[in-house]
Structure formats: structure tokens, C-alpha cells
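Bumping with the actual sequence this time:
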Amino acid sequence: MSYSSKRTIVSMTIGILSFTAYLIYALSGKAPAPEALKSWATAMLVFIGISVAVQIVVQILFHIGLAIGITIKEKEHDDKKVERIMSVTMLEDEREKLISLKSAKFGYICAGFGFIAALVTLVLGMSTLFALHIMGGSFAAGSLAEGSASVYFNEKGI
């Protein structure tokens, strides 16, 4: 499995765990009242901030683990060779950029459909909180769709 696929899978796992934590909070007794949209928006922003911070820390740890793994695997080579292997492994080439563009399309489609679905729920007179959750869920689903497409394109090849 390629470095890019592993990195994407780690990122998707953190995203799933973050969204699951938000769902647990939203369904718990500690959640704000449905009418308190400001509190819900604040809670969503806090969970987004925590998710970004955890993503950064996990990606740093992932890169450290990758460096250690390459160093152990290439222990008979000198430090310059190990550095070159690491830089080649993490290099983003034209294929990687094309995969990124193709997979981003899936994320945008999910987010767009979710936004339209949220607007439809508002037109139908449903709760504003329901529309807010649809938008949040569609962005999470879009992120997962983008990551899944990226892994698929990386492993299948373009």
C-alpha cells in the first residue's frame, strides 16, 4: 500500500472517530436544547477545532513512525540514503495531483447535495437544527468519499 493511501486512511479514521464523538455528544443528555442554535453552532465549531488539532498531531506521529520504519528497514544504508528514500516517498508528483483533483470531485458532490438537502428541509418547514446537522453530516460524508476515492485511485492506478 502506498504512503499516500496509508496517510489518507489514517486521516479518514480520525475523521470517523471525530464525527462519532460529535454524534455521541449530540445524542447525549448534555447536548443543548434544539432551539439553542448558537450553542449547537459553538459545539460544532469546537468539535471541528478538536478534530483539526487531533489530525495534526496524528499526522505528525504518522510521519515520525514512517521515518522510523524506513530507517529500520534501510539500516545498512547511510543517513543521506535514508533521507533521500523518505523524500522520494513523500514527494507529490503529477499522478498524485491528478488523483487529488479527481477525488475532490466526490467530496464536493456530497457537500453540494447535503447543502441542497438542508435548504429543502428548511423550505419544507423542518427544524433549523435538522438542516444544520444535514450540512455537517454531508461535509463529513464528503470528506470520507474524497478519502475513499483517493485510496481507490492510488491503489488501482489512473
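The C-alpha cells above came from a reply further down the thread. The mean pLDDT is 89.
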